[in-house]
Design goal:
Length: 104
């Protein structure tokens, strides 16, 4: 009887620790780069920078002008988008919290 309780207790602790490990402290920024007329801009360079750590992620928009930067640490960010023939667009002061999915 005592061995059974110990085994059950260990299994519950193992299950609880697996749930805790499933909690992530990351967020995602995604968006679409478009020009002033609303036309999408494929192949645009997008730089996502954590302004607190200077960690950067460089992306390129796909054929529909979209980008996705997953698994970003929580904190403050700046996003810059540039393409040949266009003025660079910068948006800063972006705060990411746990599990945010921010669409720009």
């Amino acid at each position: 009887m005592c061995v059974r309780r110990i085994v059950v207790t260990l299994l519950v602790m193992l299950w609880a620790s697996a749930i805790c490990l499933a909690q992530f402290d990351t967020a995602t920024i995604l968006g679409t780069v478009s020009d002033s007329s609303g036309a999408v801009v494929p192949g645009a360079k997008v730089v996502v920078q954590n302004t607190e750590t200077s960690a950067t992620v460089e992306l390129t928009t796909d054929q529909s002008g979209t980008f996705i930067a997953p698994a970003l640490r929580i904190g403050m960010y700046k996003v810059a988008a540039s393409a040949s023939g266009f003025k660079t667009f910068v948006q800063d002061g972006i705060r990411l919290n746990v599990n945010d999915r921010l669409n720009l």
